[in-house]
User: What shape does this take?
Amino acid sequence: MESDFNYFMDCFMIAGERINHHYFQLPVAGSEEPIYRERVYCYELYHQLRCVLGDGFPYKLNGEVDKNGHRIIRPELGPKKPDFVVHDPGNMNQNLVVIEVKPITVKDNIRELRDDINTLIGFLNKAKYYRAIMLVYGNEKNELPANIIPNVKNSIEGYVNRIALLWHSCPMEKPIVVKV
Assistant: This one.
């Protein structure tokens, strides 16, 4: 699975580099300032990932899969729906990566960030995903806000080798892996 994950990460970086400013921050009528909208960003990331991964990749990319009818995941994890899962549907032994996405504005709601990390940990433990990604996108003064890294670090203790923190700072640039 490691080689599949590495291939996925290479594709993920290429896909991130293809997201332009319109999907990164949404222009709003009547306002001079565009705003971060997680769904808009995620839909474009999904599109770009599908284009880069192609049909030959042995896993499927799905967005916000509702696990209500799932006999294994639903009882264990409740109604949690990560932003993306990369898996072989119907095969619990082929769950490659689970992904949560947050805009940079999450710095003002660290509980939301921690909740998403707990979702990732739940999917690693209960649904046996190989790896997880916590992706923060957006930019503030050309750096990741100071409260994000320590909160991620504290939240992923014991999972540092299985959960990657990525920061996608600007449109049309590759995300980077942040050391925690």
About this structure: Strands lie at 60-63, 84-87, 95-103, 131-137, 163-168, 176-178.
